[in-house]
UniProtKB/TrEMBL annotation:
Transmembrane segments: none annotated. Signal peptide: none annotated. Gene3D superfamilies: N-terminal domain of phosphatidylinositol transfer protein sec14p (1.10.8.20). It comes from Xenoophorus captivus. It comes from the Eukaryota. Residues 50-75 form the CRAL/TRIO N-terminal domain. The gene is CLVS2_1. This is Clavesin-2. The lineage of its organism: Eukaryota, Metazoa, Chordata, Craniata, Vertebrata.
Length: 129
């Protein structure tokens, strides 16, 4: 087990190994493979490339390096294209807290065709003020 897996229960580690193909022996190599792809997109400002952050994207794409990199690139590309949306975004903001309490966003009970959870935004429940 690596420091990146510290705090995970044995059951969670086993689930990650079986369902996500996470291997503690190759974890740093997997992360480095994704990090090495960053140079292929000089048009994107990758603000975070630390191990823990990249690991999130690997887990989200079941350790498929290319798909994890695509998701990472799309994440930063979206943030770059929508700077005004993210400049004052803080979880401690009272408006953000209220939006979360109001069910914005939500998670569908069904999965997508790849077995992933689907996050939805219930705009009808959201008081824009």
């Amino acid at each position: 087990m690596t420091h990146l897996q510290a705090g995970l229960s044995p059951e969670t580690l086993e689930k990650a190994k079986v369902e996500l193909k996470e291997n503690s022996e190759t974890l740093h190599q997997d992360i480095q493979e994704v990090r090495d792809m960053i140079i292929t997109r000089p048009d994107i400002g990758f603000l975070r490339t630390d191990d823990a952050f990249i690991l999130r994207f690997l887990r989200a794409r079941k350790f498929n390096h290319f798909e994890a990199f695509r998701l990472l690139a799309q994440y930063f590309e979206y943030r770059q294209q929508n700077l005004d949306m993210f400049k004052n975004l803080k979880a401690t903001d009272p408006g953000i807290k209220q939006a979360l309490k109001d069910g914005f966003p939500g998670v569908l009970s069904n999965l997508d065709k790849y077995g992933r959870k689907i996050l939805v935004l219930f705009a009808a429940n959201w008081d824009q003020s």
